[in-house]
Amino acid sequence: MFGSDSFWITLLLRWCVVGATTLVASLLIGSLLALIMHGGRAPQVIASSLGRAFHDLVFLSTRRIGAIALLTFKEAYRRKAFAVGIVFLGIFMFGGWFLGDSTELRSVAPYISIVINSMWFMLVPMALLISCWGLPADVKERSIHTVVTKPVRRSEIVLGRMAGYGAVITLILFTTAVVGYFWVVRQVPQRLSDQLIARVPVYGNLKFLTAQGAEAEKGINVGDPWDYRSYIEGQTKARAIWKFPKINKAELKSLGKLPLEQRFEAFRTYKGQIDLETRFTITFVNPDKDLRVPGGTFPTREFDVGGRDRVIEIPEQITYRDSYEADAEEKTANLFDDLIADDGSLTIEVGCVEPQQYIGVNVRDLFIRMPDKSFTMNYVKAIAGLWLLVMLLVFLGTASSCFVKGPVATLLVSSLIIMGYFLGGHIAEQQNQMMLMDDGKTVIDAGGPMESLYRLVTKETTLPDNIGSTIIKGTDRGAFMVLIAVYNLVPDLNWFNTGELVATGFDISLMGVILPCLIVVLGYLIPLVILGYFSLQLRELEHK
Amino acid sequence: MNRMTALQRKVAYLVILLAMLVPILMIGRPADRFDQNGTPVKSGGELAKLRFDYQLGEASLGNVDPTSAAMNLVLLGFRGIAAGTLWVQADDLKGRKEFDKLRQVVESIILLQPHFKSVWEFQSWNLTYNVSAECDDVKDRYYWVKEGLKFMIRGTERNRRVPELSYSAGAFTGTKLGRADEKEHYRRYFRSDPDEEQFQGGPDPVVNPEGKDNYLVARDWYEKANYLVNSLKIKQHRMDEPLFLSYPYQSLIEYARAVQSDGVQVDGIALASEDEILEHLAMLSDEEIDQLYKSWSNSCSEAWETAYLQWINEYGRMRLLATDDTHFVLEDLPQEVKADADEEGTSVEHVQRWRTRYLKTTNYPMRKQLCEFERRPQTALARYQLTEGKRRFTQLQDFIGARDLLRQGLENMEGVIKLYERPDGSNGILVDEEDTVTEILRALIMYTQSFVLSGEQVPAEFPLKDLIWDNPDPAIQTIKQEKMEAFQRTYGG
Fold first, then answer.
1. B208-236 burial by CB neighbour count: b if 16+ within 10 A, else e?
2. Cα–Cα 20 to 30 A to B180, which of A203, A469, B304, B426?
3. Among chain A residues, CA nearest to B96
4. Angstrom distance (rounded) from CA A124 to CA A169
5. Which residues of B touch A277 (CB under 8 A)?
6. How far off is chain A from B104, nearest CA to CA, in Å?
């Protein structure tokens, strides 16, 4: 679980393993090169290089780094990097064009998306270009000599460059973020302004009961190609059961109620009563006291964009009857004292009311909605996420520009961006398929590159059971392992996508989103500085 | 060897550039004269005149959206890639049920492809038919039906010379709203939008500016499509042209049918529900009810009369075009067919063959017969008597009063139906009008059951006994059996 001690230890261990592997591999390659170039003097050369590197990387002068950063900033200013702000201004001037008829809009999401997406499209290429082209341009124009001939360490040049480019991007990001904020606040129509919030959801874990009452991991698939939700049948024993572990009882008690928000989907197998929505029931379960308390019946309110009508407020005192008999005794249960289990968890069962109709659920479709936070703070956090992303790109660009020329560095970082956004999903899917296969389960799998090639050429749908197939599968697995190794080196940039959360009105958790992004950035900064340092150390600066 | 200095060369280039601008300006000068609507008329340079002749200017195609033009310019040659990506994105968003985002993406697609007919057709159908079906609440469903319709209406404004788009707007308004499972709600919402906060109980002015019935609005759209085909001679590629041109008139028939099936109405409520009508009737005296039913009966008669006259005088007299470019008129008398053939330079048989074929294709005689049957005062009176008789039976359990009215209604109906006997012994109404036969069978069941429930003997003879009740036609007997079972399920026995 994210945030637990074991999670952090695993993360740190993984970082150390990846770092150490890369370091050992680099050392091996470096030693080999030294052996070829210097023969018997190689160990001496290696030892002196490592000693100097240790000195250069540890004893850094903040004054010199600051001076180089300032120089970089001035250089960017001279090269009119700030003119990009005008482009951004243009987007806002004409932003309304892309929104269509604003009287028709039911959500504030398009307004916020325009701002965040515009900033992304402006800042990411800018970070890429200025960081990838700066150093190579200096080398080409030989202006780098004015720096390297001074008593300044190469590591300080790398860090100074990173800091300088980072400052340029930060200034532009700050200005555009302020303009963007006021644009959103002014443009959003009054009737939608209540959507400018930051919901604070508390999610639980989900499991199911089948129509026969057996426990299950999933509900029914109703044939929807999008398998995000699974469904429970009405008027059967089928239930979706959420367990919210360790809920903040004190804060909820101060509210005097339990606010829940749901995003269920209805699926009808027959027309039914057309003018009535499909309904669901909520039941609170406390297994410690063997208590089941009905919380009420509610319509699904599927497409209420703002979410106002999808909030269910359960009062602290729940009055109920635990039987359908007319003379059943009326009972009262206290939400916080009677329904929260001894371990601090709250269990909620959801069932569908209408027979032969279904309710579709996903684990995130029911959450406890703690008091909303401010939209402004949420916007600031979204901007912080974007800032961390562009900083990471600046670091990557600067480090790449230390060992290759501008265009190649740009291509390299662009590829990393593409892989950072898209590789993760594919690898995870493949890993999932491989795990299922290892468990002996059947999966719809097209195999790896070799298997695909074999099947394409032979037009066979499966591999024959022979040694050739074993070789093909082994090769494919090897290729996949290489891909996993690459994946471990490439940052998953989807973590930095905070715009969607702020647009849909969900709080961006500092601990859950921003802190991991910061750790990712720092995790890359250290090896990138080392890489940049060695590259610049070895690079022939006379070479154009 | 070039002996010119750098300055001389630059001046020379400038002069050549300016000289080349002259013919460009002469050829490419934009239109500089406009009509009272601000639409350019044939004027300006040669290119502008050619654009006017071939109807290729943005303004000739429809209203101009500066954003769209700007987007296409900004994207240079990447418009296709951008549009393709957006189409994929739209499909993905639909799959993930993010309909508000889908709507935004569709907006972007039309900025890139404002004159691509399929964009408007596909995406508006997508919103109206596919997205609406995903919603559980009928109000949400209507919202998305309306969104698709609005999108199509914008398509007609951006593409004034595409008859298929006006036709589709008519089909959405007429067929989607009028034939869906939710038609009772949709037709009501069309005149009184469920978003009361925004429309204060009135219609959404974008789809129904005059607050009319959906079939009448559909007719207006079909008329617009016909105007483009008939008057501006623009080809449509949806269906056979004579069939395409019949839709405004079919819409009037649908309207008359709807007025008939909606029944009596309550003042101040757009298309009252059955419960609201019954509640209203319960508060009225017998005379007032009688008056209300007669007024409804007259409205039906008028609606059918209008549909009939338009069908035979407008559509029936329209000069239609067969697929081999032969002209014919559906209502032509033999001598008129000969005149047409002479004018076309072809044989009478040739024209007659096409005419006969299209009489079948367009269901012309059957629709004519229906309108003619329904517009008769005797039919209207019979409808009133049967409806009121059924109400007395089901709501008031007044079996004697119901029996009298039902008998009168059946007698009147029999009198009219007999007029449609064909030379081969069959009856046009019994063969073609299943709805009418079903309605009569329901009335006959109640009529006969009124005797049974009063403990009396069903008479040996009663109106329509031979013609319908004892008719050996298996189709009629099947309906009778079904309705008998339905009656028993509801009332027992």
1. beeebbbbbbbbbbbbbbbebbbeeebeb
2. B304
3. A226
4. 9
5. 136-137
6. 7
Sheet holding A215-216, edge to edge: A215-216, A205-209, A239-244, A346-352, A279-286, A291-299
Q: Calculate the alpha carbon distances from A146 to A173, B209, B488 in Å.
A: 30, 74, 103
**Residues facing A285 on adjacent strands:** A292, A347
Contact B40, B58 (CB under 8 A): no
Dihedral sign from CA coordinates of A154, A160, A163, A164: negative
Closest CA to A347 of A258, A230, A278: A258
A266 and chain B: CB distance < 8 Å anywhere? yes
Q: Which CATH number applies to A200-373?
A: 2.60.120
> Each residue of B103-135: pLDDT tens digit?
888 888 888 888 888 889 998 999 999 889 888
Task: Please tell me the distance from the alpha carbon of residue B411 to that of residue B296, in angstroms, as a whole number.
Answer: 20
In this complex, do A302 and B140 lie within 8 Å of one another by their Cβ atoms?
yes
**Mutate: best of A87, A108, A279, A303, partner B, most B CBs <10 A:** A303
Contact A384, A501 (CB under 8 A): no
The reply to whether A299 touches chain B by the CB within 8 Å rule is: yes
pLDDT by residue (tens digit) across A101-123?
555 667 788 888 888 888 888 88
Over A120-182, what HEC string results?
HHHHHHHHHHHHHHHHHHHHHHCCCHHHHCCCCCHHHHHHHHHHHHHHHHHHHHHHHHHHHHH
Q: Given phi > 0 = left and psi -120 to 50 = alpha, else beta, which region is A204?
A: beta
Is the CB of A303 less than 8 angstroms away from the CB of B185? no
A492 touches chain B (CB under 8 A): no
Nearest to A277 among B136, B182, B185 (CB): B136
Spatial CB neighbours of A534, under 8 Å, sequence gap ≥ 6: A26, A53
HSE-CB of A204 using CA atoms within 13 angstroms: 26
Q: Domain boundaries in chain A?
A: 1-59, 62-194+374-421+493-538, 200-373
The pTM for the full model equals 0.77
| Residue among A111, A222, A274 with most chain B CBs within 10 A, to mutate | A274
Q: Provide, as residue numbers in chain A, all residues whose Cβ is less than 8 Å from the Cβ of B138.
A: 274-275
| CA A519 from centroid of its chain's CA atoms | 13
pLDDT in tens, A401-444: 988 888 999 999 999 998 888 887 777 777 777 777 677 665 55
pLDDT at A1: 45
Contact A98 B107 (CB under 8 A): yes
Say whether B303 sits in a helix, a strand or coil. helix
Q: Across the interface, which of B135, B150, B185 has its CB nearest the CB of A275?
A: B185
A97, A105, A226 member nearest B67 (Cβ): A97
